[in-house]
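Hey, I was hoping to borrow your eyes for a little while. For a while now I've been wondering how a particular protein folds. The fold is given in discrete form, as structure tokens running alongside the sequence. Could you read through the record and tell me how the tokens relate to the sequence? Take your time with it, there's no hurry, and the full record follows here:
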Amino acid sequence: MRHLLFFFLLLPYLSLVAQYTPPRVYEKGQTLTYQELIQAYEALAKSSSKYRLITYGKTDAGFPLHLLVISNYKEFDPKVLRKDNMRIVLINNGIHPGEPAGIEASLQFAAELGKPQSKYSDFLKNTVVCIIPSYNIGGMMNRSPYHRAQQDEPEASGFRGNARNIDLNRDFMALRSENAQTFTEIFHDWKPDVFLDTHTTDGSDHQYTITLVTTAHQDLPPALGTYLDKTMRPALYKMMEEKSSYLMCPYVTVWNSTPDEGFEQLMESPRYSTGYASLFNTLSFMTENHIFKPFEDRVKSTLDFMYCLLEYTSKNAEDIKKFREQATEQLKKQDAFVLQWKLDSSRYENLMFRGYEASYPPSKLTGEPLLFYDQNKPFNKAVKYYNHWVPELSVDAPKYYIIPQAWKETIKRLDWNKVELLRLTEDVSLDLEMYYIIDYKTTKTPNNGHYLHYDVKVSSKNMKVDFYKGDYLVPVKGRETAFVIQALEPQAPDSYFAWNMFDDVLQSREYFSVFAFEDRAMHILDTTPGLREKLKQEIARNTQMAKNTYLQMQFIYRNSPYFEVTYKRYPVGRINKKMEIKAVDEKLYK
């Protein structure tokens, strides 16, 4: 009886060390449902004190985001872990649930790291792993064998759009989805040193099961960019070559074409996960498995890369810390920031590439030439890999931005990203730099519910503007510098202006009546030096104005003091480093 009592008292402790083995449905060309996935993570979390399964916020599907944290020291507070000099790796899965290799690989990865005698345990002595099991929950629950037209395996998988039909890998700046809003909380809580997002592609055909997107090193501060390009990136490729049966190459960026003549590195803007993460000096990667390879191989190759990434991070933990800290210091001293890049087509690397010969037989449907890769004719030859980008448009960083409190959508997004926001404590009139939007283009079809602006042109003007108690000063300094500039400079490709958050300034609110304005218009024309000549030049340029009274009056009106000064004026002011103004006195903000 005494032994039986001892056994029952011991049961709770035995359950903590009982190793949970998650299902391997990928070996049968299948993938778990969302409910099965979370049940597996819950079981895993109960099997070892190394695990903590945390829920964050909400998603558009109504479910929270789960985060599994794997910590050898059983400490799960990110502030304490950073204080203890731990590196943090964050892995995101299922952003496109029809690309589920990472979902299955991460579950196996987590299970392996929790084993008492795992050969990877030593890599957790200075590194903590955080895993989002499935980011796009609504898309994962929308399950079908027909979502991916070219995909044979798995038998059924999720849908690209989330519960609101948003492509979540276009939403890291706009933050329209609750998924993305919750992700920012996770990201800024944990401040990962290394970030991995798992995907699958079908853009071309080649021999590789796994390819890799690496943050463009030119888009990082020099210390970190050089380290990524010259040290970390080559080491990860070498590790995969030595430790995995799956060779890896850079992501092949060709569509309806062939990589024989070379291909370019993907430059990801901040709307994408890796582009967003790199704004905060996080070393960011994206695996792209090949859709035509067996699903089991896709999972295993992703799993191998996760092991390599963990090993590299652990063995080089101090270097990663050092170069990230140097990058932050460089940001503080950096004056010019690149808003737009262009590819330098004169520079490239010779990349040994394992592909398939391509031909263009006639289409069975139309008879027109159709691209075909012959898997019976593999090749291994050098191709040009273009991975050097040069600045196309740069801007000098201000000391502060100032934003009227009316623009709440912008303020919310800055706050979600933990940007320091200071509020004016009294009304002030400031001499500062303002932009006017002089030209822009807008997409004809929506992108995640927005008609994006691009090719934005601005003019700059120093002027006096009134701001009021409660308006926001945004210091441009430290870790958030690159993010703030990409968000608030209207010419940046994923700025809040590009994502339509300032469209109200693009409309004129005041107007004139033709029958009542003519006498005043003539007076303005007669008393404004040079205006009559400007009108003649405009009529010569635009012949429709010659006999159109309204158009001529409109020209006069828009060149008069009566025309609203705020029309197409971007409302975010720039307080430059050379501007000595009392707005930055501590008494004026809190």
